[in-house]
Structure prediction request, 381 residues.
Amino acid sequence: MTEFETVDLPVINLHVLLTDSSDNSNNQDLIDIGKQILLALESVGAFQCFAGSGDSTLTDVQLFGAADGLFSLDESAKQATANAAFLRGYIGMGRESGGAAVEVKEGFSWGSHSNKQINNGNKLQYSNVFPSAFSSKHVSILEEAHSFSARVAQTILRALSYALLNENSAIAACCAAPNESEAISLSRLFRYYPYAQFPNNSQKNQRVVPHKDRIGSSHHTDWGLLTLIRSLEPGLQIASTSAVSETTVWRTVVPRKDCFIVNGGDYLSIITNGVVRSPLHRVVNSDSRVRTSFVFFYYPPFNTTVPRDFKFLQSDQLSEEAFDRLNSLSLFKDQRDVAFKGKANGTNIIVENGDVLFDLKKVSFGQYICSKWESVARFNY
Ligand SMILES: O=C(O)CCC(=O)C(=O)O
Ligand SMILES: [Fe+2]
Prediction:
């Protein structure tokens, strides 16, 4: 495998804020940690976060033990959950991609344990679907991973909104209903395999170019407020540029034990007028090793729309660099299979010059995100 550079992400210890829930603006820890978070999110757009040790935390041993239990089930037990509900259950190899490449991974999605049913057309809020052979001990570890991650994400945003001082109102609006956010946020486990496990069946003579025709996760930015990632293995890479070009250098994140890797998301970048970066990233697979990761996408409440004072797309309000950066976010890109590119898709997506624009006045965040998830499903493998 090609050698890649590594990136040294700042490490931020959030533990003290998770044990102290007082919402007091004089709280020095909140201010200090908020500043560290702001510095990390406005420079690289990512950091590693230690969320504590003790009972109410998530350990790598618990999490990856549950992941092993899940992925080692029979294919038929996993497949039985594949089409049970939108964004719940198993995702088979090659069934999802954010680009033209085949993503050589299997995955599993779940959400909040307290979701009981579909809620007023809100497809993101649904009860969990686990294979019947999956142990209840492992189910509770995964469901606790979801609620703990939501608490960590809320705490990061609370500290960030203090650090942003005058710019905190947009974040505060997104944080006003943490239970609604938790209900539509998404947890996933992924297992990435050597590319050789997905050979080229249809065009046998064509060479498969590693990291181009086959990849772990195509280059993208995440759509939501924050993404939390756990893994024991490197593979996640952050780009040196906001769009892929000849000068792009991919740098590997080396995960630290019992830490989350935290990425700023597109929506957070938008509501902070580009102050927070949503870093361009991808996952490359090893030739010889399997990599497992836990990924948690933290979203604002379903009905959130962009706040009224939103300045995006008025380039006079932003530096040229920030404007270009916001314009290249995956949230605004058409990530559908090539066969659909340039064609309108129902009511949620507006297509202009092949790119998808988010009609900010008409569409709620939740509705739009449903259409984004539909756009990355792949069926023809
Ligand atoms: O597995 C990882 O490390 C990250 C995956 C990722 O970027 C995503 O699913 O959005
Ligand atoms: Fe991502």
The pocket of 2-oxoglutaric acid (ligand 1) is lined by residues 190, 217, 222, 229, 231, 236, 281, 283, 293, 295 (CB under 6 Å). Confidence is low (pLDDT under 50) at residues 346-351. The two ends are 25 Å apart (CA to CA).
